[in-house]
Amino acid sequence: MERWHLPGRWISSMDYRHVNVSDFARALVDHCILTWAFEYETVMEALLSKRVQEMVQNGDEPPPPYVCRDDNSSQTVPSALCSLPIIDFGLLASSTPTTKQKEELQKLRTTLSSWGCFQAINHGTSSSLLDQVRQVAREFFKQPSEQKKIISKGVEEFEGYGADPIPEEGQSLDWSDRLCLDVYPEDRRKSSLWPENPSSFRDVLEEYTTKMREATNLISRAMANSLDLEENCFLKQFGEQALLQVRFNYYSCCARPDLVLGLKPHADGSGYTIILQDDVEGLQVHRSGKWFTIPTISHALLVLMGDQMEIMTNGIFKSPVHRVLVNSKRERISIAMFYTPQPNREIGPEQGLVNEEQPKMFKKVKDYADTHWRYYQRGMRSIHVAKCESELLLDC
Hints:
The chain is α+β, with helices and mostly antiparallel strands. It has 2 domains: 3-41, no CATH class; 74-386, Jelly Rolls. It is 30% helix and 20% strand. The protein contains 10 helices and 17 strands. The longest helix has 28 residues, at 21-48. It comes from Sphenostylis stenocarpa.
């Protein structure tokens, strides 16, 4: 005798005539979905428990969940042909306005309105400190797996060593390993997740965090000045307890770089992100239907707008979609510092950027990064949820 399961009880085929068919069908579908979801999560957890570095060391081919490349629709532009502007913050930091400063501010505005990112030089962080940050990152990832796993994260957690939480079914996994840490405000830090090896890691990260806080003040003021706004307006929106979260990325070599991505295409949910690259190319920005390979400049910082900055500037600055390719011969390291408005703080378009020519494009939002993450896990952008619903500016 066959038996089927309905919520709360089992029924046999002899009882079927007494069961509402639609109830039975729904129960059967629910059962199949739950079974598949459980199996999917089990497979993903098993995959994510084995780091990409380990697979490379064992000579493994990329497992199916990592295979995702499809470049048929977009042309790739090499770094030699990428015209991403370089912004000299040595000119912008001067308290005395000059013609060169005005020109640099105009270049900053134009760049962020078209590219959504720029390379920053003379940004106030010494070359020696940048070298130290890259060095401790390399030393951490070169340690034996057992040492790194001391600070492993769970498959559903953000902070610690490992990979992103399990994505929704159908989404690929990134060919990379990461160490994610909250670094500011200090009371958000989980000291148990900060590596003890290399021994200089903590001191270097402390100093780098201090310099990145200074950099966010400099960058935020420069962007406000480029838009002829009150200098501290963006800093006020971010709040005094704005978050800094660092992600150390290790992109292992891959024998089949044509099949995988180090980081899938996405736009950031932060206010903006400050990225320190090493000398291996891989980061690409999508613009005008093409993937532009961003050049590596030894002691420059790449500043990339997130969705929340696009919202604050009423759509003037763009939050670009970007991705990371991997290399068949050399690993790549980058350090991304995410600058995000303090929790539970409402942000929205600056009033000075809303007028008849530039109507209000976005609503005020709160904790947008959480919304962004839910869409990111599905391989989707989320900025549309903040847009005004019609030309009549309903809900704005």
